[in-house]
Amino acid sequence: MSSLPTETDYINGAKQAMAKAYAPYSNYPVGALVVTQNGETFAGCNIENASYPEGNCAETAAIAAMVIAGHQRIQKIYIMSQDDQGATPCGGCRQRIREFSDNNTPVILCSPAGVQQRLALGELLPHAFGPEFLL
Ligand code: THU
């Protein structure tokens, strides 16, 4: 018998993603777990390289996995770091999340101890320039 995933399942998914991070330069591993509108999940981790500015964030990787699987709506996103406060997404990732969500979409910042902060995307990226301006 299968049951619906709990928040703990999502947090564990983000934790497993963080464990895969390739962050030898910053030593700041991050995992992200996107939950789509229909409940599917896609994970990503940060992937750095020797040319420091060319690394990718965990959120970017999770969104790429979601899109290549054919999904374009984020129901919520978990971001896991070792930071006690929970890491907030960088400016570029706020915009990438915005593309597939709206002002009310929960962005859930976690540490290994659990959820540290729940924010709405509109709090992180107010007055966003979104696809509605162009599409
Ligand atoms: N990073 C993420 O992957 N997501 C965030 O939300 C914050 C920062 C990464 C980028 C870089 O690999 C490392 O964390 C330190 O900035």
Describe this structure as you would to a colleague.
It is a single chain. The chain is α+β, with helices and mostly antiparallel strands. The chain has a single domain, classed as Cytidine Deaminase, domain 2. Helix content is 27%, strand content 24%. The protein is built from four helices and five strands. Strands 2-1-3-4-5 form a five-stranded mixed sheet. The chain is globular and about 40 Å long. Bound molecules: tetrahydrodeoxyuridine. The site of tetrahydrodeoxyuridine (THU) has 15 residues, from helix 2.
Present the secondary structure layout:
Blueprint: H1 7-19, E1 30-36, E2 41-45, H2 58-68, E3 74-81, H3 91-99, E4 106-111, E5 114-120, H4 121-124
Parallel strand pairs: 3-4
Antiparallel strand pairs: 1-2, 1-3, 4-5
Tetrahydrodeoxyuridine (THU) binds next to α2.
Short description:
The protein has 135 residues and is α+β, with helices and mostly antiparallel strands. It is built from four helices and five strands, in the order αββαβαββα.
